[in-house]
Amino acid sequence: ETGVTQTPRHLVMGMTNKKSLKCEQHLGHNAMYWYKQSAKKPLELMFVYSLEERVENNSVPSRFSPECPNSSHLFLHLHTLQPEDSALYLCASSPTNLPYEQYFGPGTRLTVT
Amino acid sequence: GESVGLHLPTLSVQEGDNSIINCAYSNSASDYFIWYKQESGKGPQFIIDIRSNMDKRQGQRVTVLLNKTVKHLSLQIAATQPGDSAVYFCAVPGRGSYKLIFGSGTRLLVRP
Fold this sequence. Notes:
The structure holds 2 protein chains of 2 kinds. By secondary structure, chain A is an all-beta fold.
């Protein structure tokens, strides 16, 4: 295992629901990332937190709201999603001084109905 | 902006043969390159990296070759095994300190 866990592993939600994805890392890293992985498309970086401060926000719609309460935990709050938001959402972490050595969790497979 | 492209969406090889997965990048100023492997049901896993001051780097059964002249990167897997079946991505740093630009991936299928 990579030391990065994500829950839930699968989620089906309606467009009016509110849900949250959780990520936890046990590697002592200080940077955490959310990526979206859609079929036949490259991984898309959504958000980056370094030392619990958001340092990257890649033009992500406001229906996705990240939260980083401490350096070990990262959440992605979801509300009023669209069917095209269905994808695999991956969390990753890295040391802040080695931001490109990213360790990924297994992802949450999200289906919006 | 930066872009990364992989040459083949799927590569099928016989078990025991060598595999070569190719990647092209657009930014000649890129100085660091990474290969990731993603198995079914898992997140991407770091395999090997190389800096632009090197042409070749070897790991355990894997070798990465960098040709800066043509902006081309390749991952070679020796004696391919069934456990090597996965999607392989190359990635380069993007703008900003934390951004990685990923290619679209090559799916490696290993025939028994």
